[in-house]
């Protein structure tokens, strides 16, 4: 007992001594080692428990979709510049942008050995579009002809198959849309448009637990709340075959713990760095730290249904935008994890152009004051910005508010909702009092995703009630353009006009702040901010 | 004794119904909808949302939901289905419970062994240096927040000394669970020590101790049997209720050490408005509390011969 006690005293002394000089730790980092690569090496990725079963059309959050993306390949994919790359498709052709003919590469097989045919695609899409199967991403099929018969807004479904999908032969099928869309091919790169093997339909629920796909990896095991393991699929025929032996998706409760595990060698790739570690991670990891932008944007959207903004002169909102000192806020409050936005479309998206908003996104207090005055002032001379308290937004909302008040004298407060659910609830119910935070991560890297899906009067992403006849018309015109290039150009013209109507105030683009261990190399991230797993190389031990 | 136990078990029924109803109503009162929450910023197809709401009975009035839930739970031991994953809540519980049980058991042992031992030492030397030192030590443990303590331990034992892994990757590995268990046990350990110390110091002056010493019993027997048995009643009461707290209240510790247990699952269910998962988890915790309390009350009779249950 005496011995144990004195040991305890030693421990206390140590605690006190070290507590004073805590945060002394820090790893010694070396650059990418040039050691030999083990093509069968397995590495681990920081992840979390997928919210949904692993069905391709049922995963919306990032943990699940990272796994699904490794297990399923789609017809096409895109590169870092936003250009289309054929994967399972040999070609996707269209003469009128309405009917697309898809030719598959021959010889592809699912992980259970059954062939991937045109039917694998058509049947899977019809299944996912059917509301009875309750797939969260089913509305993605709404562009296809016959979707409104399968999933009518009201009343009973009149069909179980979309009339726009037709199998021609084993390796060919056609997709007919309800109206032309030059950039539809871009949508085909999303996981929702994956094929499914016959075995899926016997028991979709079990298939969600043990998915069988056609992707570069095959499923091995899922230990709930612990980890998911996938292994390289040796017979994979696509261009993105795995350069490693497999991946373990490890469940982490918080990014802080994952970072500690990275430093102690228990996990290889991190997809995010906790705010606490942001100031030190570049020193800790050296060249193994990742800091790149991805296609997501943070905006302050205007609740146009409120009395305050209903008949507002856009000049007032331009003024508010110019009162925000984006450069300083991203550098200080946000620790360089964001990049000031200069338009409404994020980087890495086809059609992105810098400085579209002109001086509207440049900090200029005098002009801000003047514009607000010209526009008749902010009704009530007071604004609030709604945000969810569980998303780490409070700091920058306060900073933005201070910036606006200091520059223009308009009173500004943060309107905190307890969590994201409560925040969404208020947005859906049109109960936002003034302004609200609104983020958007790309679904497909084409400019339409950031314009049409956010600012069209009837778009799902338009929750602020913004409606502008002219913009709606021009969106329709851009959608019916003859070629992809023409459509891109028309959308760019629309974006250039957005500053005259100010549907939202662009703030900044997101960046991926991540890192990896000494065991791996070649870690890259795509536009969606997810790691590209196939290209990771594991060093031989 | 048998009748007493039966009566206590029967009393659990209204308590059980009351707590589940309260939790059910509280979850219902929160703003936000679990089905809508699945779709995030992007909104979803109204048809699918309607279908999902119907499947989980969210389109029914609250009392109907409660009635169905209780009926399934009591008749079929069916705790409902998690909305996002579509997995039965019993499966989710099955994943999280063993982890939490292991952690709580380890913490409980640490807290009991060290807490009582320190308390006895302090109590027997009440007022002297050892007592004061232990007093200071326990005060320190109570006043340092859990996450600070956890972080300090991590820095020392995981990063600087490399003795223990910083986080839990495999919850069956006692080595990995040791640090979180110590952190979880500390606050309670301090309380156990203080309770034991007071009780021992007080009973040292009791008549029956003087009698025992006068009888010429060896000191070991006086302290080990006569003194301790009588002094442990408040400690056992505290330990009993603490079992529940260790299991349900470990949210911070679990997050700190990456343990996928009950605490984290409860926090997540609240965020996602997963009413069924939440009620299922809390129901189990309520049962644990009730049973632990019953055990404590029964232990009284064992410890103190003056207490009898008719």
How many beta-strand segments of chain B? 0
Specify Rg of chain B, calculated over alpha carbons.
24 Å
Class of secondary structure makeup of chain B: mainly alpha
What gross morphology of chain A would you assign? globular
Q: What is the average of the pLDDT values of chain B?
A: 82
- Low-confidence spans of chain B: none
Brief characterization of the structure:
The complex is a heterodimer of chains A (541) and B (310). Chain A is an alpha+beta fold and 541 residues long. Chain A is built from 17 helices and 20 strands.
How would you describe what is shown here?
The complex is a heterodimer of chains A (541) and B (310). Chain A is 30% helix and 21% strand. Chain A has 541 residues and is an alpha+beta fold. The two termini of chain A are 45 Å apart. The longest helix of chain B has 36 residues, at 89-124. Classes of the chains: A alpha+beta (541), B mainly alpha (310). Chains A and B meet through helix 1, helix 8, helix 14 and strand 17 of A and helix 2, helix 3, helix 5, helix 7 and helix 12 of B.
Task: Produce the secondary structure layout.
The complex is a heterodimer of chains A (541) and B (310).
Chain A: H1 2-20, E1 37-38, E2 42-47, H2 62-71, E3 76-78, E4 84-86, E5 89-94, E6 99-104, H3 118-129, H4 147-150, E7 165-169, E8 172-176, H5 184-187, H6 199-202, H7 204-209, E9 217-223, E10 227-232, E11 246-251, H8 255-263, E12 269-270, H9 278-285, E13 289-302, H10 314-322, H11 326-331, E14 338-340, H12 365-374, E15 382-388, H13 394-408, E16 411-417, H14 420-428, E17 435-441, H15 448-455, H16 469-479, H17 484-501, E18 504-516, E19 520-521, E20 537-539
Parallel strand pairs in A: 2-11, 15-16, 15-17
Antiparallel strand pairs in A: 1-20, 3-4, 5-6, 6-8, 7-8, 9-10, 10-11, 12-18, 13-17, 13-18, 14-18, 19-20
Helix pairs in contact in A: 10-12, 16-17
Chain B: H1 2-29, H2 34-37, H3 46-55, H4 62-76, H5 89-124, H6 129-143, H7 146-160, H8 174-203, H9 207-214, H10 219-231, H11 233-248, H12 251-256, H13 262-271, H14 275-303
């Amino acid at each position: 007992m005496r011995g144990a006690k004195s040991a305890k005293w030693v421990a206390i002394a140590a605690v006190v001594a070290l507590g004073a000089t805590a945060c002394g730790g820090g790893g010694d980092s070396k650059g990418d080692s040039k050691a030999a690569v083990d093509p069968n090496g397995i590495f681990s990725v920081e992840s979390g428990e997928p919210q949904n079963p692993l069905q391709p059309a049922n995963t919306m959050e990032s943990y699940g979709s990272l796994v699904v993306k490794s297990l399923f390949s789609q017809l096409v994919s895109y590169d870092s510049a936003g250009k289309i790359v054929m994967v399972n498709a040999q070609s996707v052709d269209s003469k009128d942008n309405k009917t697309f003919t898809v030719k598959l590469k021959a010889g592809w097989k699912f992980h259970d050995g059954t062939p991937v045919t045109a039917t694998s695609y058509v049947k899977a899409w019809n299944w996912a579009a059917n509301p009875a199967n309750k797939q969260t991403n089913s509305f993605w099929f709404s562009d296809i002809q016959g979707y409104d018969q399968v999933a009518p807004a009201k009343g009973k479904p009149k069909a179980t198959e979309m009339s726009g999908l037709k199998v021609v032969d084993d390796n060919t099928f056609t997709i007919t849309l309800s109206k032309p869309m030059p950039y539809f091919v871009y949508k085909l790169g999303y996981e929702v448009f994956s094929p499914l093997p016959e075995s899926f339909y016997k028991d979709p629920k079990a298939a969600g637990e043990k998915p069988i796909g056609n992707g570069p990896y095959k499923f091995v095991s899922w230990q709930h709340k612990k980890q998911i393991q996938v292994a390289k699929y040796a017979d994979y025929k696509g261009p993105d075959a795995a350069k490693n032996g497999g991946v373990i998706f490890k469940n982490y409760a918080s990014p802080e713990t994952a970072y500690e595990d990275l430093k102690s060698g228990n996990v290889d790739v991190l997809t995010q760095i906790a705010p606490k570690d942001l100031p030190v991670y570049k020193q800790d990891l050296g060249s193994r730290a990742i800091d790149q932008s991805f296609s997501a944007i943070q905006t302050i959207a205007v609740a146009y249904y409120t009395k305050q903004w209903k008949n507002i002169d856009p000049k007032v909102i331009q003024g508010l935008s110019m009162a925000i000192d984006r450069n300083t806020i991203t550098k200080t409050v946000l620790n360089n994890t964001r990049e000031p936005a200069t338009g409404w479309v994020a980087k890495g998206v086809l059609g992105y152009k810098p400085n579209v908003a002109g001086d509207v996104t440049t900090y200029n207090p005098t002009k801000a004051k003047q514009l607000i005055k010209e526009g008749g002032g902010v009704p009530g001379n007071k604004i609030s910005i709604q945000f969810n308290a569980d998303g780490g937004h409070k700091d920058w909302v306060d900073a933005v508010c201070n910036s606006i008040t200091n520059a223009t004298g308009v009173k500004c407060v943060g309107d905190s909702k307890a969590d994201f659910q409560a925040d969404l609830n208020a947005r859906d119910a049109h109960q936002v009092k003034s302004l609200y935070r609104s983020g958007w991560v790309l679904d497909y890297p084409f400019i339409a995703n950031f314009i049409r899906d956010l600012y069209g009067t009837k778009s799902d992403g338009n929750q602020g009630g913004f409606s502008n006849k002219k913009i709606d018309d021009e969106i329709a015109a851009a959608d019916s353009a003859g070629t992809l290039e023409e459509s891109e150009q028309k959308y760019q013209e629309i974006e250039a006009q957005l500053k005259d109507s100010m549907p939202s105030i662009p703030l900044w683009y997101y960046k991926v702040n991540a890192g990896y261990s000494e065991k791996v190399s070649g870690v890259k991230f795509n536009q969606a901010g997810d790691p590209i797993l196939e290209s990771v190389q594991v060093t031989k031990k | 004794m048998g009748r007493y136990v039966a009566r206590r078990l029967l009393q659990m029924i209204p308590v059980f119904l009351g707590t589940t109803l309260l939790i059910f109503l509280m979850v219902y009162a929160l703003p936000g909808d679990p089905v809508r929450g699945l779709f995030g910023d992007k909104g979803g197809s109204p048809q699918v949302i309607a279908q999902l709401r119907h499947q989980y009975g969210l389109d029914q009035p609250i009392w109907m939901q409660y009635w169905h839930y209780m009926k399934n739970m009591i008749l079929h031991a069916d705790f409902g289905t998690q909305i996002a994953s579509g997995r039965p809540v019993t499966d989710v519980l099955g994943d999280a419970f063993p982890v939490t049980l292991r952690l709580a058991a380890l913490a409980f042992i640490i807290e009991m062994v060290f807490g009582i031992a320190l308390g006895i030492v302090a109590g027997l030397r009440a007022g002297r240096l050892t007592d004061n030192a232990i007093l200071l030590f326990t005060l320190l443990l109570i006043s340092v927040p859990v996450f600070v303590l956890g972080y300090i331990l991590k820095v020392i034992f995981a990063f600087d000394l490399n003795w223990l892994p910083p986080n839990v990757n495999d919850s069956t590995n006692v080595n990995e669970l040791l640090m979180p268990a110590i952190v979880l046990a500390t606050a309670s350990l301090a309380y156990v020590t203080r309770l034991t110390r007071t009780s021992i110091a007080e009973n040292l002056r009791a008549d029956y101790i003087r009698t025992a010493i006068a009888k010429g019993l060896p000191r070991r027997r006086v302290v080990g049997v006569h003194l301790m048995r009588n002094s442990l009643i408040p400690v056992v009461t505290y330990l009993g209720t603490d079992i529940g707290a260790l299991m349900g209240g470990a949210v911070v510790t679990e997050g700190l050490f990456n343990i996928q247990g009950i605490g984290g699952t409860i926090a997540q269910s609240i965020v996602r408005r997963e009413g069924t998962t939440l009620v299922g988890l809390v129901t189990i915790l309520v049962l644990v509390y009730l049973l632990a309390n019953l055990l404590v009350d029964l232990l009284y009779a064992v410890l103190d011969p003056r207490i009898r249950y008719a």
